[in-house]
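help with these tokens:
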Amino acid sequence: MKNNNILQYFKNQRKELANYISPNACKVLEIGCGVGNFKKNFKYKIEYWGIEPNRNAAKLARENSYKIFSDSYENVYQSLPNAYFDLIICNDVIEHMIGVDFFFRTIKSKLVKGGFIIGSVPNVRFYQNLIRLIFLRDWKYEDEGILDKTHLKFFTRKSLISIFSNHEYKILDINGINSIRFKDSFIKYPLKVTICFFLGFDSRYKQIAFRISK
């Protein structure tokens, strides 16, 4: 990731995921919370916990949060209370994890009955990525985006559904978000739509958002 984009990355409020927040959530855990700006999407007071490996971001998150762990999930999950959180957030974070199955197996015990997990992952089937792979025959890691150098896992909607099913989660919502822009020129936009038609409707979206429960 480019240096001038790092701070903005940690400050992202992710408003496009606000609709996935359960309305009665009061004890919230965010995995990869950055500086804690996602909390601004809540319109009421909550008990906010976070896990953030980046120490500078974690320091800022502590200023208006209940408790912040400056470490990886794998190193702190045993310190989290069991059957405590009614909402757990993991926005664009599980692709950075070595043990995705470990995460979904262990995080379930931290949820109360009726609790939810919401989050998002990059969509490896985004049309720009497929064009580079299919037509340019290239798979080049980058400083940011879907092929970010720090991404250890890649997901499609289908593979995400499989992971949830394997760990016996109930899938409440799973949708593409951040689609191709409609403000492009008249010529360019129809071309993108045509490409996405042949590649598949899901290739319009940069990310996949989800809401699941145990």
